[in-house]
């Protein structure tokens, strides 16, 4: 095991804030995040503001493009990776955090790079375990309306302005998802993954939930309400694997992901590659 202490951060970083990839001093901080400005509603009856919005949105496309380019460049050398999600509020002295570290470590020792949202709590735990196992520890952070720095266990980090660009990176460079206990953000990421697999946008993509007790209520509701009322198929539940032990996380990822063929369409598919 390598150094048990987190790598030291730049002492000046405490008062820094990232707007996308750009670091700024707090006094230069913008009131709204980029995502919020993108999604802001403009009254269609206000002709002046509508015209302004059209102009701004057109230029915004270039910024979105540049974020994809920077993300693809940064991630292109990453090894086979697993993305780990989980609560930003998990306390470092909690048993759940310790389990998160073990999950990150087990994945790292099995040869996977670990990608997280780069923030505190469960994300930090998984990055810590991966870093200590000597694996690539990656954090894909997001611009938030309050100060936010990458956790100290991230070796390769990026700050994204746009949620949807960041989410693309979570999926594109991973062979599977692991969800530690978490709140709305974790549920969002879990259900996005489920939808992508259900609709075959990604194939052979294991989704592993850690914590049988934590996830039981949700799984019961999915079975008793969603399946019972025909909103999802019973087989859709098979897309989820629920485990408690770090080695079972690795086994579940291996079982589905190792045999993963290239997703590249072959000529026989008759599919365009664009
Ligand atoms: C203390 C605090 C709330 C910090 C928030 N800082 C965050 N930094 C990076 N990613 C985040 C953050 N909050 C939520 N997320 C995203 O949403 C998930 C966690 O959300 P939640 O805590 O389960 O709902 C993470 O996997 C991450 O991808």
Automatic annotation (TrEMBL):
Q: Which UniProt keywords apply?
A: Cytokinin biosynthesis, Hydrolase
Q: What is its EC number?
A: 3.2.2.n1
Keyword Glycoprotein assigned to the entry: answer is no
Q: Which NCBIfam families does the record match to this protein? A: Rossman fold protein, TIGR00730 family (TIGR00730)
Give the source species: Gordonia paraffinivorans
Gene3D superfamilies membership: 3.40.50.450
Q: Does the keyword DNA-binding apply?
A: no
**Tell me, which GO biological process terms does this entry list?**
cytokinin biosynthetic process
Q: What class of enzyme is it?
A: hydrolase
State the reactions this protein catalyses: N(6)-(dimethylallyl)adenosine 5'-phosphate + H2O = N(6)-dimethylallyladenine + D-ribose 5-phosphate; 9-ribosyl-trans-zeatin 5'-phosphate + H2O = trans-zeatin + D-ribose 5-phosphate
PANTHER family assigned: CYTOKININ RIBOSIDE 5'-MONOPHOSPHATE PHOSPHORIBOHYDROLASE
What name does this protein carry?
A: Cytokinin riboside 5'-monophosphate phosphoribohydrolase
Q: Which GO terms describe its molecular function?
A: hydrolase activity
**Family to which the UniProt record says this protein belongs:** Belongs to the LOG family.
Q: Where on the tree of life does the source sit, at the highest rank?
A: Bacteria
